[in-house]
Amino acid sequence: MKRVIAEENDTVKITDGRVFVNDLPLDDSYVPTEYRSHDDWGPQTIPDGYYFVMGDHRNNSSDSRHWAWCPKRYIIGRVEVRWWPIPEAKLF
User: 3-20 burial, b for 16+ CB within 10 Å, e for fewer?
Assistant: First the structure.
């Protein structure tokens, strides 16, 4: 499962692991310090019909930084329950 970070026509840039969408820093406070990465990527603009997705374990995630855009047709659902880590389980 991946998190949608940017939509079509958004511009994404990553500098030292910090994600910017349309030159605004992404609030990714949900990513624990031990899972952050320090890579650089972009800037690139997401083409029509695609999304930019990232995993929350940024330092060990195969996502749009590696295999490019995610076609809209691959987005098939929405997260409604987070069960891990157990102390942070919640319904959306």
Answer: eebbeeeeebebeeeebb
pLDDT in tens, 26-74: 999 889 889 999 999 999 999 999 999 999 889 999 999 999 899 999 9
SS3 content of the chain, % helix, strand, coil (to 5): 15, 35, 50
| Cα angle 40, 53, 90; round to 5 | 115
> For the chain, what is the total number of helices (H) and then of strands (E)?
1, 9
CA–CA separation, 88 and 77 (whole Å):
21
Pairing of strands 70-71, 3-6: unpaired
- Which pair of structure tokens corresponds to residue 60? 């060990």
